[in-house]
Amino acid sequence: MTMRQSGGTLLAALLLSACAGGVIPPGTSGPAPPRPVQGGAATGNAVRPVPATPRPPMPVTPPASPAAVMGTAASAGVALGPAIADLIPSGERSRKALQAFRISCPSLMRRTDQSGLTRGSDWNNACAAASSWPETSASEFFSRYFEAVQVGDGTAFVTGYYEPEIAGSRTRQAGYDVPIYRRPPDLIDVNLGLFSDSLKGKTIRGKVQGSNFVPFDERAQIVSGSLAGRGLELAWAADPVEFFFLQVQGSGRLLLPNGDVMRIGYDGQNGRDYVGIGKLMKDRGLIQAGSMQDIMQYLRAHPAEGAAIMDENKSFVFFRELTGSGPLGAMGVPVTAEASVAADPKYVPLGAPVLLSLDRGEPNGIWIAQDTGGAIKGANRFDSFWGAGSRARGIAGGMSARGSALILLPVGSAARLARQ
């Protein structure tokens, strides 16, 4: 995946409405990005935030180049940041970030940087050093091989996502009767750009019915059994509410009756518009704060009404079984708990370290941009990955932090950018 179907954040995904017009919502056209969701065997109580004082961003500078491509880091303006040696904390966050950076290097050195900030060869020295650098001095690694730049006004907004854990079974049995479907073979993606230049970059999903191409079944139809009897059941969930939130996230873990874990990841979506039920419920006065916990509490307390509300989100996600060490991000490598963030690749090179200083202490420090998300757009917008389990769920479900962000680039990058 990118885990996040939403690529978004848990709270953002639940509140936001998706695009209209039958075009596949952003972030759902491929393996989903890690994005925000609920779903867990744990209670999911929110974690009390750790307050912190963020470092203020530097004064805004004009764009680096009048000819810069709009909607990129260059058009937002790039300025050399402060010396980072005293800004990078030592400890577990930096150690995990070094691990994540090391994993990203093969892809980082060969991929095209959409942000325009770096070239593949810029990363060679840092990646060579990372391969054998001792993790006990990870902060020194980042200080030696990187320099900071600020993109745009440097004002950061950070949310959180995690890998949900819910009760599930490979076979249908008592207590496990919510089907988790594989991608149906008759679900077809159509690249509209093949038919008209004006539609380049737009895709729709549907199915062939007779001689017509029609929308695929919506959530209410699928939940009512429109796909039953076709052998598409990958597994079975115990709780429809938990499974709903796992679909929002785009990947997760099934805790099987025998104690084993089955990991599942995004393998397509029915092409229907996503509807954020949190906003819908707030607008109707059904909940007040709109937190993940508020939404789940209402859905459980009012099962019939809750089922109808969930069906108002016509989007339905299909899954495949995953193997490996963790959910995959947009770089094609596993994302690392408390070290990986989703970012907009037009503003941050995927694989680059990011230094966050926020008004909430838990996310402060070094992260590696390894993922993307449909709701993660623009400069200095990040979604932090917290892993799996009750702690991860509690932090990610309530994460909403603001402050400043610096992008770490290989030494010498800022000087080259200034000459462009």
UniProtKB/TrEMBL annotation:
Alphabetized GO MF terms: hydrolase activity, hydrolyzing O-glycosyl compounds; peptidoglycan lytic transglycosylase activity
Record domain Lytic transglycosylase MltA: where: 165-320
GO cellular component: outer membrane
UniProt keyword annotations, A-Z: Cell wall biogenesis/degradation, Lyase, Signal
Keyword Lyase: yes
Transmembrane segments: none
Compositional bias (Pro residues): 51-65
GO biological process terms held by the UniProt record: cell wall organization; peptidoglycan catabolic process; peptidoglycan turnover
Annotated signal peptide: 1-20
EC number(s) given by UniProt: 4.2.2.n1
InterPro entries in the record: 3D_dom, MltA, MltA_B, RlpA-like_sf
Top-level taxon in the UniProt lineage: Bacteria
Catalytic activity field: Exolytic cleavage of the (1->4)-beta-glycosidic linkage between N-acetylmuramic acid (MurNAc) and N-acetylglucosamine (GlcNAc) residues in peptidoglycan, from either the reducing or the non-reducing ends of the peptidoglycan chains, with concomitant formation of a 1,6-anhydrobond in the MurNAc residue
Gene3D superfamilies, per the entry: Barwin-like endoglucanases (2.40.240.50), RlpA-like domain (2.40.40.10)
Record bears the keyword Cell wall biogenesis/degradation: yes
Pfam families with a match to the protein in the record: 3D (PF06725), MltA (PF03562)
Region of interest (Disordered), residue spans: 27-65
SMART domains named in the record: MltA
Protein name: peptidoglycan lytic exotransglycosylase
Origin organism lineage: Bacteria, Pseudomonadati, Pseudomonadota, Alphaproteobacteria, Sphingomonadales
